[in-house]
Give the backbone structure.
Amino acid sequence: MKRLYETKISNARWIAYDLPGNIGWIAYIVALILCFAKSPEFMSNCVLRGLTVTAIIPALMMLVGIAELIHERICKQDRILPGWQLFLGFGFLTLGGIAGAVLSLAGVVYGIVQDVTVTLLCIMLAGGVLCATFAGLIFMGFRPKEDL
C-alpha cells in the first residue's frame, strides 16, 4: 500500500506561502528566458554564460513541479498526496529553487568580481530563494497519513 502524506495548514497560510512561491518561480523563469532573448552584456562572458545555461536545469525542475501541482489540483488531491507526487510537486519546486538560487548566486558573485552588470541573475537569485522557501514550507507541512 502506498504511503499518503497530508497537510493540515490553513487556507490562509497556504495562500501566504503559495503567492510568493509562484512569484519566485515565475521571476526565475522569465529572467532566465530574458537572458537568452535579450542577450545582456554578461552573456558574452563564458563563465556567466555557462552558469546561465546550467540554470536551465533548475528551471526544468520547477516546471516539472508546477506541472505536477496542476495535475494534483485537477484531480482535487492537493492536500493528500502519495509520496512520489509530493516529491514531484513540492519537492522539485523546492530543489529547483535551491539549485537555481545557488547557480544565480554564483553568477552574481562572479559578475560583481568581474564588474559586470548581472541584474537578471539577481532577479533569478531572488526568484529561486522565494520558490525554494515557500514551496519548501508547504513541502515540510506534509506529514505521513495513517494507512487506510
User: Anything to note?
Assistant: The mean pLDDT is 94. Strands lie at 4-7, 80-82, 142-144. The helical segments are 11-38, 46-54, 56-74, 83-113, 119-140. The chain is about 75% helix and 5% strand.
